[in-house]
Write a structure and sequence with these properties.
Layout: H1 5-27, H2 33-43, H3 48-76, H4 80-101, H5 105-120, H6 130-154, H7 160-182, H8 191-209, H9 223-253, H10 258-272, H11 279-292, H12 298-328, H13 336-345, H14 354-378, H15 383-396, H16 403-428, H17 435-453, H18 456-473, H19 483-507, H20 512-532, H21 539-556, H22 562-571, H23 574-583, H24 589-593, H25 597-615, H26 623-638, H27 644-657, H28 665-670
Helix pairs in contact: 1-2, 1-6, 1-17, 2-6, 2-18, 3-4, 3-5, 3-6, 4-5, 4-14, 5-15, 7-8, 7-9, 7-10, 7-12, 8-9, 8-21, 9-12, 9-13, 9-21, 10-11, 10-12, 11-12, 12-27, 14-15, 14-19, 15-19, 16-18, 16-19, 17-18, 20-21, 20-22, 20-23, 20-25, 21-23, 23-27, 25-26, 26-27
Length: about 675
Amino acid sequence: MKVGLREVVFSANCFAAAMLALYVSFALGLERPFWAMATVYITSQPLSGAVRSKAVLRLLGTLVGASAAVVMVPLLVGAPLLLSLALAGWVAVCQFVSLLDRTPRSYLFMLAGYTAALVGFPTVGHPEAIFDVAVLRAQEIGIGVTCAALVHAAIWPRSVTALLGARVRTLLAEAERWVADALAPAPIERADEERRRLAGDVTELHVMATHVPFDTAAARPTRALLSALQDRFVLLLPLVSAVEDRLGAIAVEGEVPAEVGALVGDVRAWASDAGAHAPASLIARVDALSIELTPADWRELLIANLLDRLRELVEALDTARLIAAQTIDPGAAPPQRVRALLRERRQRPLHRDLPLALLSAVATFAAIVACCGFWIMTAWPEGAVAAMIAAVVCCFFATMDDPVPAQRGFLIWTVASLPLVALYLFALLPLVHSFETLALLLAPALLAAGALMALPRWYGRMMPLLIGFAGGLALTNSFTADAAGFFNGSVAQLAGVAAAMVATRLCRSLGAGAALRRLRRAGWRELADLAARPGRAPLPAWRSRMLDRVGLLGARVGDLEQGDRDAGMAALRELRVGVNLAQLAPANDVAKDLGDDALAALRAEIAAHYRARARGDVAAPDTALLARLDAAIATALAEVPAPRDRLAALTGLRRNFFPAARGLDHARAAA
């Protein structure tokens, strides 16, 4: 753990913004200035663009949630159970929508959910004050986010765009090194590690991109540009794996032809040094070799397939370099190819897991209702605090595969904040006689915690400590140290976190391996549909969702056991399977009606295989599928002229389904 100048400045900015928010709240005579102070720390991020994005979305979400509470509480205050169900239902629905949205807007929906709980539950005993409390909450949050955004933007702002440019340079260098290592004559041990690191870094790029629209830089890359860059990097993963596979398979069948080997070497040199060759000349050489080659056996089919994959690899890496250059220098005019990709990426459908989002919402609903039930039955004065904290903790960690460890950490560090709060409440705050004295007393704790919060590994520990500290102090214009209130409030906080943990454990808790299997099953279901109805499934939408899944899979590979890790790597090839299946689609409706019965049967068998995989009934394809593939390849080879697209698709499917199969003996027997 090392705290540097950046962390010190970030902590000083947080402290200055928090004191400014406190001072403004005190000066305006607001009742809960500690809300503004806590908001500063919740909103603050090391990157200035991230602060602004969270500030805007947090304020909008607060307004929506407070408005919902204003509607529900007066209507249902006479029926506590109905009010509890209504508020819990609102939080659960907002969380459900936020998990399905998967854009920066999701933060707005999450805030709208638990803000209704924060405003609604404390006013159950005084429903006539609901409007005043809602307005007060909006005011305090507005003061907090405004102070955070202004201070972080004014004092040594750290631009997301500048950091993103540096990250893209590093990511591109990693991709180029990995491609060069994968094309080396002899296998290089670090290639698999480089592939996993690249997959994780691509997902980190997506996370950083969410804050770019709010950055302080004059010229910023667009989200469409960053999505296109992420797609190109993700496409490299299965492409390079396919090239490695074809080179190995050709070596088993015989030697790689000299001209093909020379081309692979030149592509490798170009991947290491963009100036070594012109990408257009490499593509021209690939096309020339493809035209000269007339596949007549399995080895030549592999060579033809290798050339196709090499062409795609050169195009993908060249496009990635163009988009990376545009990202690093967003003020430059984009080339035509980049503009075309931007038009394609404007609307990008993403993977959505409806059952998991529903289970998360059910867990949140159950945790809140359980706290409310205990509150109603016991008439516990601090029961509202438990319900509020349960809502907040469930929402905070809902995007994780397994939120329970993070929730447990939240509980531990909330407990750690209690002695500090007690020290301030009963020993230090009674000495305060002015705002200046208050700021001096708060400085040691807040500055130390703020510096640690700037370190990624400490962020998840310091955030609950700071929230517990600010909420426990509950600074107002009239200070009173109430030991009974402090004890009850502390117990209520811990009870709320515990309720969230239990509900989450019972309703939904996945490890990285289980999340990977859910992602793969979703892909298998769509592959089955693509195989069964190749002419109807919209390929661009499927490809976009599959690219998103590949990125999500890649981000989890480092957290998996070896068996699941191998499955994660295998999942990257399924993107190619879908493209191969699309190539087997009939060209038009007439062709579909008069279509090849053998190809239709092949597609039906592939669809049945993926449906069985999605159900968990089978892991490996049946050998009957190999016979059908070989028969289809033999039939295509006998045609004059040979259908190159169909042969390329069938060869790719055979290698992906049966990588250990050699030759076309099965096909000759079937023919």
